[in-house]
Amino acid sequence: MSGALPPTRDHGRAGTGIADVLRDEILRGVHPPGTRIRQEDLAARHTTSRLPVREALRLLESEGLVTLVANSGAWVSRLTLAECEELYLVRERIEPVLLGLSAPLLTPADLDELDGLADLMEGADAEEFLVHDRAFHLLTYAPARTVMLGDTVVGLWNRTHHYRRAFVAAAHARHDGAAHHDHRLLVAALRRGDAEEAAHVLERHIRRTRIELERHPEIFDADAALR
To answer: Where is the HTH gntR-type domain (predicted)?
Structure first.
C-alpha cells in the first residue's frame, strides 16, 4: 500500500499552511480591511490548486479575518465605526468573564511571562506593541477551558485588530502610557489572586480603547475608501 496521505488530508494540511501565512499578513497590516483576496493569486503564490486556498479562506472566515461573499469573492474583513463600537461593547462584557475563568489557573510561570511581556511593551514601537499586547492578553485567557467563549474572544480580537492598530499608533504618538499602567495593575491583581479586581481593570482597559476609537471616525472613513 502507498504511504501517501489521502487527497482531502493533503488539501487540509496545505490549507492550514496557507491560512497561517495569510493570517500573519492580515494581522501585520499587509492586507488592510477591504482588500480583495484573489484565490488564483494565492494558488499561484503557494503553487497549489484552489481547493486548499478555499479551505484556508473558510478557516480565516471562521476566525473573523476574512469575509466570503457567495459567487463574488473574498475580502479582508472591515468594520464601520458603529460595528466596531458594538464589538468593543461585547468585548467589555465577555473578556472579564473569560479572565475570571482563567485567573485561578494561571501559574507563577505564566505571571512571570506576563511581567516580561509588559516590560517588552514599554520599550516597543507601535507594531511591536501590538504583537506583545496580543500575546499578553491571550496568555491571560489561555488556561480557561471553554466551549465557545475562548474562540469568540479570539474572533473579536481578530475583527478589531486593524482598528486597534490605529489606536495604538495614536497613543504612541502622544506618549500615552495608560495601557502600560493597566497591564501592570492587571498582573498585580492576578498575583494577589484578586480575579474580581483584575476583571475590573480589564473592563476599563477595553473601554478606554473603544472611547478613543469613537473620537477618531477618520480611521473608518479611510477604511471606507477601500470599499
So the answer is: 12-79
